[in-house]
């Protein structure tokens, strides 16, 4: 039995991203398993906020869409935006490798918030696939 937060992956992350998170032992719920493909973001944000799940998306514009930002705030959503242009399996592995920092971030912040999850820099001298990225608070600004 897996413990810890439940991560809800937005439809924009496809099937491989949530599968890799699940394979690493994280608890994951996929958009496709709960909502229609054309479900408005405000609707799933409302439901995820009520459930207390942590939403994960690749949509950087969500903070700039007034109706979606309002849905995050009004429904006390914990939202993580995966940053980076890379194949989803690479983004998922970076998320898994960054998980200890993600977990710490989640514990330090109370919803509603939007955090950005970054992959490690490509030029990282340590190389290796296990190098973690970092997480930073995007909303609310401090």
Question: What does this protein structure show overall?
Answer:
This protein is an alpha/beta fold and 142 residues long. It has a single domain, classed as Rossmann fold (3-Layer(aba) Sandwich), CATH 3.40.50. Helix content is 35%, strand content 21%. It contains 4 helices and 6 strands; from the N terminus they run βαβαβαβαββ. Strands 2-1-3-4-5-6 form a 6-stranded mixed β-sheet, sandwiched between helices. Helix 3 links the parallel strand 3 and strand 4. It is globular, with a radius of gyration of 14 Å. The termini are far apart. The mean pLDDT is 91.
Here the CATH topology equals: Rossmann fold
**Number of strand segments:** 6
Strand percentage, roughly?
Answer: 15-25%
Gross morphology? globular
Topology readout:
Blueprint: E1 6-9, H1 16-23, E2 27-30, H2 41-51, E3 54-57, H3 66-74, E4 78-83, H4 88-108, E5 113-118, E6 134-139
Parallel strand pairs: 1-2, 1-3, 3-4, 4-5
Antiparallel strand pairs: 5-6
Helix pairs in contact: 1-4, 2-3
Put the structure in a nutshell:
The chain has four helices and six strands, in the order E-H-E-H-E-H-E-H-E-E.
List the defining traits of the structure above:
142 residues; alpha/beta; Rossmann fold; globular; 6 strands; six-stranded mixed β-sheet
């Amino acid at each position: 039995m897996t413990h810890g937060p439940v991560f809800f992956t937005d439809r924009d992350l496809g099937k491989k991203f949530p599968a890799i998170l699940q394979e690493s032992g994280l608890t994951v719920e996929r958009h496709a398993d709960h909502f229609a493909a054309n479900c408005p973001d405000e609707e799933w944000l409302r439901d995820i906020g009520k459930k207390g799940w942590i939403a994960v998306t690749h949509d950087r514009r969500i903070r700039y869409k007034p109706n979606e930002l309002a849905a995050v705030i009004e429904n006390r959503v914990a939202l993580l935006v995966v940053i980076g242009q890379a194949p989803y399996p690479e983004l998922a592995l970076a998320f898994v490798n960054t998980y200890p920092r993600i977990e710490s971030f989640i514990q330090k912040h109370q919803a509603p918030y939007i955090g950005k999850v970054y992959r490690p820099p490509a030029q990282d001298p340590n190389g290796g696939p296990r190098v973690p990225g970092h997480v930073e608070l995007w909303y609310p600004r401090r």
